[in-house]
């Protein structure tokens, strides 16, 4: 790696990390409003947000919603990946494109479309509607990672399990699931993070009782300009960092790169 490339990477890292560093500094400010540099340092804003139900309840709602939407998306992504990779039904490419299509749509457009559709079936501004919206948003992230990992697995191992007398459920539990576990775990982590940080869908579909943290922060900023928002944002960033470290520790992001099609062509 030459020095120019190293310098470029260093500048890119500073460009990406500096705004987050500024948020951390502001969250420790002793001032009553956002000012930089802060006149002093204090943890009072963290104490305030940790005791404020207007932040803590939405934080719990976001965590709960992220976990539920990730589990439901996984229940859809795994069978879809198995069918698309091993069965290859007619129109498989079109089905895959349809399932991944939320990635190509602006989140605000998708949120408005979900609002109109869910309202037409009586689920507008309900928790079930909000959950469905988040499942739609996170499903492509899970499906993409599971597809990538499962496409690289050897189908002959599953065929051997069937030959030795395993029924479909046992073959899935003993062979298929271990093969796709890295993609399922990493995709689930990313799906949780996407749900945890989603604004547009939550803004359109939530109500006062199921408000998520991003919506709560957005509403707080309308009438307030103090470091409390920086403090809750730091807590939010800490949760995201912990999740990403877990992904890297257990599986490593390098093991989840897209497989080469040529590497699986000889299995047929």
Beta strands, count? 0
Broad CATH class of the largest domain = Mainly Alpha
CATH topology of the largest domain: MetI-like fold
Overall pLDDT level: 82
Structural category is mainly alpha
Radius of gyration: 22 Å
Biggest β-sheet strands, sense, barrel: none
Low-confidence stretches: 256-268
Span of the ends, CA to CA: 40 Å
Percent in strands = under 5%
Instruction: Tell me roughly what share of residues is in helical segments.
Output: over 70%
Shape: globular
Protein described:
- The chain has 268 residues and is mainly α.
- It folds into two domains: 1-42, no CATH class; 53-267, MetI-like (MetI-like fold).
- 75% of the residues lie in helices and 0% in strands.
- The chain has helices at residues 3-27, 44-51, 53-87, 92-100, 107-120, 127-152, 155-163, 168-197, 200-205, 213-223, 228-250, 261-264.
- Helix 3 (53-87) packs across helix 6 (127-152).
- The longest helix is centred in the first third of the chain and has 35 residues, at 53-87.
- The radius of gyration is 22 Å and the shape is globular.
- The two termini are 40 Å apart.
- Residues 256-268 have low confidence and may be disordered.
Features:
single chain, globular, about 75% helix, 2 domains, about 0% strand, MetI-like fold, 12 helices
SSE map:
Elements: H1 3-27, H2 44-51, H3 53-87, H4 92-100, H5 107-120, H6 127-152, H7 155-163, H8 168-197, H9 200-205, H10 213-223, H11 228-250, H12 261-264
């Amino acid at each position: 790696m030459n020095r120019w490339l190293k310098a470029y990477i260093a500048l890119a890292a500073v460009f990406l990390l500096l705004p987050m560093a500024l948020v951390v500094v502001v969250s420790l400010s002793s001032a009553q409003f956002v000012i930089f540099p802060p006149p002093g340092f204090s943890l009072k804003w963290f104490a305030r947000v940790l005791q404020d139900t207007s932040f803590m309840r939405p934080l719990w709602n976001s965590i709960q919603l992220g976990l539920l939407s990730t589990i439901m998306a996984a229940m859809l992504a795994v069978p879809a990946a198995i069918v698309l990779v091993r069965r290859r039904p007619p129109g498989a490419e079109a089905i895959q494109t349809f399932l991944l299509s939320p990635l190509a749509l602006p989140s605000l457009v998708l949120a408005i479309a979900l609002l109109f559709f869910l309202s037409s079936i009586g689920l507008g501004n309900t928790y079930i509607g909000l959950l469905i919206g988040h499942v739609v948003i996170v499903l492509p992230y899970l499906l993409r990672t599971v597809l990538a990992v499962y496409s690289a697995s050897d189908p002959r191992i599953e065929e051997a399990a069937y030959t030795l007398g395993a029924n479909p459920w046992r073959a899935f539990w003993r062979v298929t699931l271990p093969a796709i576990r890295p993609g399922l775990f990493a995709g689930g982590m990313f799906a949780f993070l996407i749900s945890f940080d989603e604004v547009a869908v939550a803004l359109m579909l939530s109500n006062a009782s199921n408000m998520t943290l991003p919506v709560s922060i957005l509403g707080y900023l309308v009438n307030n300009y103090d470091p409390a928002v920086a403090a809750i944002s730091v807590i939010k960033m800490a949760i995201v960092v912990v999740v990403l470290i877990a992904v890297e520790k257990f599986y490593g992001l390098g093991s989840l790169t897209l497989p080469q099609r040529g590497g699986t062509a000889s299995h047929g």
